[in-house]
Amino acid sequence: MGQKTISIVAETMQEARDKLKSEVPDGMHILSEKIISDGKQKKIKARADSTEQAFKKARSKIPAEAIMLAEKELLPFEVKTITIEAADEKEIEKKIKDQFDSGTKIKNYKLLVPGKKGFLGIGKTLNQYEVQITQQAEVEISYKTKVAITAEIGEGLTSWKQLLSISKDTKDSLSSSSLLSVYPHQILFVVIAALQNKVDDDSYFKDIPFGQVSNSVIKKAQRYIDKPPVPSLMSMFGIQLPADRYSITRTGDIQRKSNPQLDGLIVTVADCLKQYGNVNITDYEKICNYAFKAIMHYSEIPIASYFFLLPYLDRIKGHKNIIVEEAKMNIYKGVEGLLFEMYDELGEGQVITESRIKNKIKQLMS
User: Fold this and answer.
1) If 0-12 CB within 10 Å is exposed, 13-18 middle and 19+ buried, where does residue 123 land?
2) Is residue 31 pLDDT above 80, yes or no?
3) How confident is the model over 286-296, as a mean pLDDT?
4) Mean of the per-residue pLDDT values for the chain?
5) Is the confidence at residue 237, as pLDDT, over 80?
6) In 74-159, which residue ranges form alpha helices assigned H by DSSP?
7) What is the per-residue pLDDT for 171?
8) Are 134 and 143 in contact (CB under 8 A)?
9) Residues 363, 98: Cα–Cα separation, whole Å
10) pLDDT, position 311
11) DSSP alpha helix (H) spans, the chain
12) Crossing angle for the helix pair 302-316 and 184-195, to the nearest 10 degrees
């Protein structure tokens, strides 16, 4: 994949963005962007023993290409004489430091009235000093520079690692919005994963295929959500899953309607539930709770989350209004439907494991 760097300088950020977009050749996209200068007004302060020296010091810190907007004297150079009570020279320095800012310096001092030792601490007084201090001049300069950005452009992305690198390196939304039309599902999935603190490293994405998502794959995922298959044993008796089996409470929690007959099937084959030991199949409440535990557990498999989020991501890619709870609810529905389909596919003594689910979804996405 050929890549190259483009550098843009303009008066405003909007002008820089427009200019950058116009310089991207057909068939190429902005892969990453770095703002060198945002073009906003900045201020710099400096102190010295005269106003002129302070301005000279401040100007030396401003970029050569900057445009000066205003120069202001905040404090003039000043010499003051004050009286301080202190035990010794060190205490004089400490009191000056505590009472005045860092631009204040001691020029000289002299003892005016010696202190008294007193008797047993009674009648003790501190020395009185006349202290001459100088207050440095302080100035402020306002300036601005032109907007400067650099961007890496290329034919496209080939891995989650590249996409994650862009999301970490790019502070501005330009590259994300540019790539959103090409990789909408991937970018929105990264956003949702980030909202759940799941993108600390790219290992989370290692089992998920990267590339364009076809409509047929989205429709496959949607079928499990909207019309989940029911094991043949139960469908013979007319048992079906209601469309409203999941809902979001006012507190933002996701709740699920129980179905003891179907939930019992999940509990008997979900390998992740072995840790809880044998469950009494007549204990409907526990059966339903454990079935939901299994659904939530397998929903955490990255490729399962991605696959069953595809219809939701496809729906929101235009307006990008992400509701995490709604996204998770779609995953739960899809995983539940997948578990029931896999139940019918199991051989004698087999159970549903994470690896079986990963392989099944990879087949569905191929």
Assistant:
1) exposed
2) no
3) 95
4) 88
5) no
6) 89-99
7) 43
8) no
9) 72
10) 96
11) 13-22, 51-59, 89-99, 160-169, 174-180, 184-195, 215-226, 232-235, 260-269, 284-299, 302-316, 324-345, 354-365
12) 120
The H or E element that residue 207 is part of is none
Residue with tokens 């729906």: 315
Q: Which residues contact 358 (CB under 8 A, 6 or more apart)?
A: 207, 301, 303, 304
**Residue 16, Ramachandran bin (φ over 0: left; ψ between -120 and 50: alpha; else beta):** alpha
pLDDT tens-digit profile of 323-343? Answer: 899 999 999 999 999 999 999
Which 8-state DSSP code applies to residue 202?
G
Proportion of the chain in helix, strand, coil states, percent, rounded to 5: 45, 25, 35
Q: Is the pLDDT of residue 233 over 80?
A: no
pLDDT in tens, 179-219: 777 888 998 999 888 888 887 777 899 999 998 899 999 99
**Whose CA is closest to 112, among 92, 134, 90, 95?**
92
Question: Is 172's pLDDT higher than 60?
Answer: no
Instruction: Tell me the Cα Rg of the chain.
Output: 35
- Two tokens at 105? 């310096």
Angle at 229 between CA 189 and CA 314, to 5 degrees: 25
Cα angle vertex 96, ends 93, 98, to 5°?
110
Structure tokens at 351: 């159970």
**Which token pair is 237?**
């008796």
Tokens of 67: 């445009």
